[in-house]
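pipeline: protein-struct stage 2 | run 1193 | DUF4267 domain-containing protein
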Amino acid sequence: MPRAATLPQPTRGGPADLRPVERVLGWASIGLGVPQTLAPAAFARAIGAPDGPRSRVITRLLCGPRELAVGAGILAGERPRPARTLRARVAGDALDAALLALAWRTGPRHRGRLAVATVATAAIGATDLLAARRAGTVGA
């Protein structure tokens, strides 16, 4: 009796199992999440965004932990490809774009720094989207 075809099941692995772009995106998330969680005011100053109690809470409790979680998910999570965690990065990019738009609307502290952060977020978002699409392809 013929067996039904099944899709490969995700397994656990480590950073060595990742494609180079996936590894970089995982470590980039960790690198962004640490300062966002531990020093949200300094992070806001570094990217030229307005700083205040509300922005610190959003950065410390929403953005930082999200970056740490997806970084850990990519580096230590599902295999053969971390498709779900890469899709979570794409969703996070949408949130970051909305927060950057709000920063532009409320008046950036440093327009040049905020412009660089906005362009970097768009470039990283495109990379995340491509990586998520590639990881989600069966047999990739």
